[in-house]
Specification:
217 residues, alpha+beta, 5-stranded antiparallel β-sheet, 4-stranded antiparallel β-sheet, 25% helix
Length: 217
Amino acid sequence: MIGHTGEAGFTLLELLIATTLLGLLSLVLFDGLHFGRQVWQQAQTSTVDANRVRKIQDLLRAYIIQAYPALVPSDPTHAHADFQGDAHSLAVLAPDENGSGSMVHVTMDLQQGAQGSVLAVATLPELANANAKARVKQFQIAKRGRLAFAYYGTQDASGPRWTAQWQDQMRPPLLVRLRLESRPERDAFWPEMIVAPRIAADQGCIYDPLTKYCRGR
């Protein structure tokens, strides 16, 4: 009979090679899982940021669209619409967002602080007494960059144009724009928002045929 000269198995070199290959495959698999987790987290963060921005824009859009330009007398001979704005603030009279049926004075302030751009929305009932305090909500907009309002309409003989001021006019602008002046890559994306107020003049005014404008109530 022929005897066996040795037992079948792996040499030390083969085991080292197999262990090294297994380690490399594990490293590649771990990197892939880590990359996939980062992508998933970034997608989740982007979705949350997009929903937050959409919620803020919907609130602002509703106030601007439904703004009522009631005439406010500034002196015995002149009145202006209750719609006052500049680059970083806008004040309007609009229906209460809570559906109470009443009108509220809304002031939208764009503030720049250590945490970036913050939008403060203050509401005060139209018939509130002098001691009443406005209800204020604050929204974080962006870590860097700054939002700015702009207004499109006619204020003088030069015709309609975009401007950073809308003060003491008889009617609201045709369009209101809210744009992020700088958009860093790591900040939430803020789409440019352009809104057209629905009501162009105070429906309860007394029409003046000479000026073809309202002259108050």
